[in-house]
Amino acid sequence: xxxxxxxxxxxxxxxxxxxxxxxxxxxxxxxxxxxxxxxxxxxxxxxxxxxxxxxxxxxxxxxxxxxxxxxxxxxxxxxxxxxxxxxxxxxxxxxxxxxxxxxxxxxxxxxxxxxxxxxxxxxxxxxxxxxxxxxxxxxxxxxxxxxxxxxxxxxxxxxxxxxxxxxxxxxxxxxxxxxxxxxxxxxxxxxxxxxxxxxxxxxxxxxxxxxxxxxxxxxxxxxxxxxxxxxxxxxxxxxxxxxxxxxxxxxxxxxxxxxxxxxxxxxxxxxxxxxxxxxxxxxxxxxxxxxxxxxxxxxxxxxxxxxxxxxxxxxxxxxxxxxxxxxxxxxxxxxxxxxxxxxxxxxxxxxxxxxxxxxxxxxxxxxxxxxxxxxxxxxxxxxxxxxxxxxxxxxxxxxxxxxxxxxxxxxxxxxxxxxxxxxxxxxxxxxxxxxxxxxxxxxxxxxxxxxxx
Amino acid sequence: xxxxxxxxxxxxxxxxxxxxxxxxxxxxxxxxxxxxxxxxxxxxxxxxxxxxxxxxxxxxxxxxxxxxxxxxxxxxxxxxxxxxxxxxxxxxxxxxxxxxxxxxxxxxxxxxxxxxxxxxxxxxxxxxxxxxxxxxxxxxxxxxxxxxxxxxxxxxxxxxxxxxxxxxxxxxxxxxxxxxxxxxxxxxxxxxxxxxxxxxxxxxxx
Lengths: 453, 206
Hints:
- The structure holds 2 protein chains of 2 kinds.
- By secondary structure, chain A is α+β, with helices and mostly antiparallel strands.
- Chain A contains 11 helices and 19 strands.
- Chain A has 4 domains: 2-37 and 81-193, Immunoglobulin-like, CATH 2.60.40.10; 44-78, no CATH class; 219-261, no CATH class; 265-450, Rossmann fold.
- In chain A, the strands form 5 sheets. A 6-stranded mixed sheet of chain A has the order 16-15-14-17-18-19, sandwiched between helices.
- By secondary structure, chain B is mainly alpha-helical.
- Chain B has helices at residues 22-26, 52-72, 74-93, 96-115, 120-146, 154-181, 188-205.
- Chain B is globular, with a radius of gyration of 23 Å.
- The chains are: A alpha+beta, B mainly alpha.
- At the A-B interface, helix 3, helix 4, strand 4, strand 6 and helix 10 of A face helix 1, helix 4, helix 5, helix 6 and helix 7 of B.
């Protein structure tokens, strides 16, 4: 035991968390799951007796003896019991806070702590669903004497989020393999993968603003840099905004009105329903990944521009970060985008009720907030939701990653339907940014050229 | 383990077709996965074929069985050889059912060899080797299902082969010892009764 523990701790530069977990030797929690007969030796008794019978009738001692050996196998299949897997699992990860895309080596040591040998032990490690095994199967089949240790390692590619290992499944069989027992061995291991938020480009917002000073040009006259209108002079207007040219021409005093630039409140709404977990290819990132990445860029860019930014998820699990500003809020936003279970790399469990969700979302949404809606637009309900939020006065900009493929009639139909939805949204006055292979900032820069204010 | 790309459930009016994956839709895997039964789950993490060690050991044992049966009687040897080929086919197709049929052919081969007055010793060797060959092939299929081909399985296969061989060896020792010691000149029925008595005693003790 001490040797194994020392090994686990020796592995070097692990953060304190990982070292503490590997020291938890002896904490593997065993849950017996299932016992069954494999029925693989069924019929051997019949075969043995048939051979003996033929041998007796035909007077062939060789056949009688062979049949008797078969009876020996019958006994072999009957004796023995599939023992519970009395195994301690010790799992070490090479890095418990990797960056996305890093390869993390996972070493699993299984030690038989029971008093009896396990002649046939198969271990299937509970790799978190969000991680992809890139090297070596996370499985082993072995035999363990009491006190013996088997080790195997595999490599996973880290992806955004917080990943907890599920219980290892241990399948034991008796020596003949006629009985089988499954045991779950829970050993807590966790890695947290938080991507850096890269700053996006300038993101044009729509004209719904707060009363605070910011950088979104509005239709309100006042102080600013861009010309808006002229009006009659009123006492108290600042001297530098008086239209002196007009004064010289006509002798009347007039005041220049400039567009006020104000800050906006923006809520980044990310579609994380099950239908949004779609990708163009089995290996490619899902639309949720693309949305979260783009939302991270928008989050940084907007916060840097002085706007108040919040985060919400459209999905069965609740996720809400109310709009705010400042360094602490930036850190909270990064944390939410990286590890919130509602935005996990695999779909959340549970049903999604659209009307309930919408009611709660509207209650939380500040009256002056506009919405950046990140959705792949693969179904009509996303489009109609965008229209409904927009109709309630929260101006919506739809940012849609393109995950459709075009290699079969079915995928082409999906792509066509999606384009139709984009067209309808644009027709009803909602701004749409669409990006596929291009990066999100490039797509925003291209789209901005088309938009009027 | 695979990530669900296509949603399985949905509300009424919920569209089902979502960015279908290229590999499955095009059926492009067909040429590389010819040997798979159609209902085998597509598992991208691992190769579910039986481990090489198990298949090779099963083939060696099968060849030994065929050779022994051939020494007893050529026709029986041919049948056991056929059984070995069938065992290989069952391993490649990952089908325990084919393996059972193969073992059945082998048993018929041994019965034929015994009926054609094959000698006792090669018959016993053929029986033990055939049991080992089938056992390893079947074990390999279950290992492939649960652990996969690339996982480390050699120790497991070796231990399993060892115990099965040990069980066979012990049975042969008991049976052949009884045959030599007590029943050398007795009629066959007496031999059968003697062995039956031994089995009854063994099960009573258990």
